[in-house]
Amino acid sequence: MTSCIQVQELLCTCLMRQMVCFTEPSVKSSLKTTKSKKSLSRPGVKNIVLVEGVRTPFLLSGTTYVSSLLHEGLLNKTALPKDAVDYIIYGTVIQEVKTSNIAREAALGAGFSDKTPSHTVTMACISSNQAMTTGVGLIASGQCDTIVAGGVEFMSDVPIRHSRKMRKTMLSLNKAKTLGQRLSLIGGIRMAHLAPELPAVAEFSTAETMGHSADRLAAAFGVTRLEQDEFALRSHTLAKKAQDAGLLEDVISFKVPGRDIVSKDNGIRPSSMEQLAKLKAAFVKPHGTVTAANSSFLTDGASAVLIMSEEKALAMGYKPKAYLRDFVYVSQDPKDQLLLGPAYGTPKVLQRAGLTMADIDVFEFHEAFAGQIMANLKAMDSDWFAQTYMGRTSKVGAPPMEKFNLWGGSLSLGHPFGATGCRLVTTVAHRLRKEGGQYGLVAACAAGGQVRTYPLSMHCLIAEVHRAAVAQVVKEDD
Amino acid sequence: KMAGVRALGVLSRIASRRYPALTARTHVNYEVKGDVAVIRMNDPNSKVNTLSVQMQREMSEVMEEVWANTAVGSAVLISSKPGCFIAGADINMIQACTNTEEVTRLSQEGQKMFEKIEKSPKPIVAAINGSCLGGGLEFAISCQYRIATKSKKTVLGTPEVMLGLLPGAGGTQRLPKMVGIPSAFDMMLTGRNIRADKAKKMGLVHQLVDPLGPGLKGPEERTIEYLEEVAIEFARGIVAKKIPLTKEKGTMQKLQDYVMSYPVVRNQIYKTVTGKVMKQSKGLYPAPLKIIDSVKAGLEQGPDAGYLAESQNFGQLAKTTESEALIGLYQGQVICKKNRFGTPARPVKTLAILGAGLMGAGVAQVTVDKGIHTILKDTTVPGLARGEQQVYKGLNTKTKKRTITTFERDSILSGLTGQLDYSGFEKADMVIEAVFEDINIKHKVLKEVEAVISPHCIFASNTSALPIKDIAAASIRPDKVIGMHYFSPVDKMQLLEIITTEQTSADTTAAAVAVGLKQGKVIIVVGDGPGFYTTRCLGPMLGEAVRVLQEGVGPKKLDQLTTSFGFPVGTATLADEVGIDVAAHVAEDLGKAFGSRFGGGNVEVLKTMVDLGFKGRKSGKGCYVYQEGLKTKEVNRELDDIMDKYKLTPHPSVSSDSDVQYRLVSRFVNEAVLCLQEGILNSPVEGDIGAVFGLGFPPCLGGPFRFVDSFGADKLVQKMRAYEAVYGDHFTPCQLLLDHANDPSKKFHK
């Protein structure tokens, strides 16, 4: 877990460096369509801006980062004054007992002022979304002006606990006063005590793995295997194109001691439909449709953003990338609608902001599973679903694919649970500038617990969470 | 290729024109999807599918067409009903038969039909969602492959034994081969439901499918569709030989099969199982023995003998009084699970319970897990803590049995509020009081509650004997007062006796019944009066039991006499369970209300016992001595002194074992019939259900009213007259019983 801190130190540092280096004027936004609203700016409401977003390359778990665990501090001090940051918030899913407030450890290690408070948040896949919106809240309430928010996940190293019996014995051992008491406790240890408690693979409240849930969701919406494979292939193809074109500018290089510098996401693998079709179902066997290739993979990585009040950012000479305008979180039934967050959240956040689907120029949805994305799109496009389950009079409509995840997504870039949220927001900002749009929408679903090798934390009792933020590009005329 | 498909379409259109019967089918239909025939069952007149005459006829027709259709390579059998595959055979078919031979023939027809299914040249995949019971299971296990959904509603089982029957369409022959002899006996002799995951482990089904959540269609509709899609894939896989039909057996299974190959071992099993059955059923139930006999015939003498034994045994069982009684109870239960008072004006969403004792906490337990917000109020912290612990323990037992998860347990418990005051009572839609049985205390809490509750709130009293109108006398709105008599332990006893006074409004009754049904209860609604129905019937029988004890019959002997008559719990043990103090209280109260008819034993016997602290199980001593951790119980020897003091000399003419049994039972039955005569009971059906589910009247007799029908009212009156000659009016038959005795054509049932 030392590694987490160090990578975060790196990120914090780079973030500051980038902010300082950032001098080029960005592309002037030209509005292509008529919007419901010219701007979401409201009198008397503080404008909050994304100044910069960075991330490490996202790497397949068990690849390079494994050997970089003992990475030493590498700080180039930046020009950003140490005490310019008011608060630091980090999101992570797997809590390491030794560094339960990982944000604080990282902040200190990165050379931030020891007077800068920091805390860690957790909310499954959307932990870094939570970090960002917590920051937005702090700025909006006038508590702070400058916030660093981020997320980190290292699936290559998850804590594995002793069995409950063994933990009990060990704790009792601490309290045992005499040698006799200790010996009798030790004597009570059986083979069963020694088996480690492997990280749970299931949702705490429903005992279902997420892959299983995704497969059921895909089946419920009649998403075929072909549709899922096609979507996965699209994600990888677009990610490759974006990577080759140098669009993924939020990625910063990262030197692994004893190895080369890592500067690219390594999970992007455009394949062919034939090859994808060969894979067997990964969760619901043998008749399921979710495979290893159409699911997001275990990923190591970290991300961070600098959020400021517009006033402060401009005063310090920064050119912000986007306004962070509005957000909602929603929850559903953890059993059957675990992964349907985006379908519920999108219409709600649009309504809050007073926008329609047509106003949105850029969509960035978190791709946990191809089947889950397709199911969400179908749900959003169904009047019956909107009326029966969402209490709406009509559907909100599915986002057009020509605006949707054009630089790849979690399926291809990877999905470090705690770090995906910042990547989505930064990507929206970058895409808005590149594509000349005004409004962007981010949506991500999270589980109460996390899939695969994650020991469920009690904090995750609220089961299904979703976050969407509408970002409006900063007009250069300002 | 396309042309071929089109040609096929034309052919099938021609085919349907040639067979006009196709369009006339209402229960079974099929559709050919590619090369798979999807056979769908849906009884349009019922919530469940049963193997009725029509269903069977249409199924045969469809199967013949499927077999004849060269374009079809395999078939999927599925129900269009959510929550039900096939719930079993149609009981009416059996009841319509006039003699055993007819029933045997019925069984043989079923056997033949399923034999054809079993030997089908085209593999048939049974796609099971919902209940797959009795004949439905026999149908499914004749198919080549079974896929079941993991839905909670999906259960497989052979409940025939509970109706005094056996699986008569090949079940006794196929099950032992499919799941092994021990599991087959377990299934058929207990009749218990098996959930899908367990069924997979046992080898009863091949594959499981997850139920789906909301999608572009409702969850239930889409789940059935999905099951069908998966089943079609498997059907094609079987034809293509990609899916094996036989499962590789595990080491344990192989070992078991090996051991079972020795006739000595098998004989030992028959012996052990028969012994167990005899011990539990006291030989009063013929069905379990016939099941063992049928299985044995098949395994020892070959299939021909087996199937023959099965059909003949089935025929014989169908015409026994035991089967008639059990079927009557089943049908009665169905009736008592309906709300004949309609839908209440407002559903009960918050229920408050006064008193966190055994009863109060028990009611809380069966309420809170149904999604009703439950307030549990007591007067003391220890009392409340004990009650809440009882609820927790009850739910925790369910997590251990894996019927709910620990998460569900905690989430259910969050719906329970324990408190010492009346806060929040203004939100309650119904208050059930379970405080001490004392009219003054009842009046006190009624007034306290009425001061805080909202105008629509119903006040229900869980009393076992106090007349509701006496309680309602203190009420400012007696139309909202009703009696809800639960039985202890509440989470196990199925019966709820609801008592209405003349002032109770119909909507109040409807709401009480709705709550009871939600709690999973079987409900009888009776008129008001001392002891209502159940306690009143028990009164004379307990009085007689005390007399029997005074006459020198020990508690053990008394228990043996009653259990061998069919009561699941002996009378002495029952008294201990109910509480001697409660029994004394009730005996005295009812004695005052009904006079000498309720006499018999001396009430002082019970009072002396209470004075000495022998209050039954709860005090550790009653008729028996109870010790923590000990399963066996010894007779309380200190009782001898009391009995000596109140000793009576038995009359030899009415004191044989059989006479003692009929003395006890006839007083019970006479009081039940009197309740019907007086209008306390609404119908004989409710009388039977109340007696069997609330008081443990022998199920094999079907309840007091069915007992009179089958035993003969005249014979019963004759016996009672003999006892009357010795003991007086305790045994005077009531007018309605006399009417039935005088006119043999009069029957309580049909």
**Tally of individual helices of chain A:** 15
Give the number of helices of chain B.
Answer: 32
Which chains share the greatest interface? A-B, 26 and 19 residues
Globular, elongated, flat, extended or rod-shaped: what is the shape of chain B? globular
Helix content of chain B: 40-55%
Overall average pLDDT of chain B: 92
Distance between the termini of chain A: 43 Å
Strand order of the largest sheet of chain B: 15-14-13-16-17-18-19-20
Which geometry of chain A do the CA atoms define? globular
- Helices and strands of chain A: which structural class? alpha+beta
Q: Tell me about the biggest sheet of chain A?
A: 10 strands, mixed
Secondary-structure class of chain B: alpha/beta
H/E element sequence of chain A: HEEEHEHEHHHHHEEHEHEHEHHHHEE
* Proportion of residues in β-strands of chain A: 15-25%
Strand tally of chain B is 22
Computed CA radius of gyration of chain A, to the nearest angstrom: 23 Å
* Oligomeric description of these chains: heterodimer
Strand content of chain B: 5-15%
Low-confidence stretches of chain B: 1-22
